[in-house]
Design a protein that fits this description.
The structure is a single chain. The longest helix is centred in the first third of the chain and has 25 residues. This protein has two domains: 30 residues; 47 residues. Helices cover 69% and strands 0% of the residues. Helix 2 packs antiparallel against helix 3.
Length: 83
Amino acid sequence: MWWLLWVGLAVAALWGAHRLALWAESRGWIYYRTHRMPVGSAGMAMLEVTSLLDPAAEHVIEEVRGCRARAEQDESGAGSPGR
């Protein structure tokens, strides 16, 4: 009969973690259920982890960051000549 208590506690803990994740998502801290992660975010996270294990990969991360910054600048129109 103890297993029933453990199952109940596990279900309650999972429900609590779910509610906590929904609350954190509503504050904009995490992506969980209703909001999707921006395209490329998972790849960038893996590059960050790779840079910890292989410091030579740092130049790839810097290049990706530079490309994103240039793309954002192009979209906003800031810094482009003639505007």
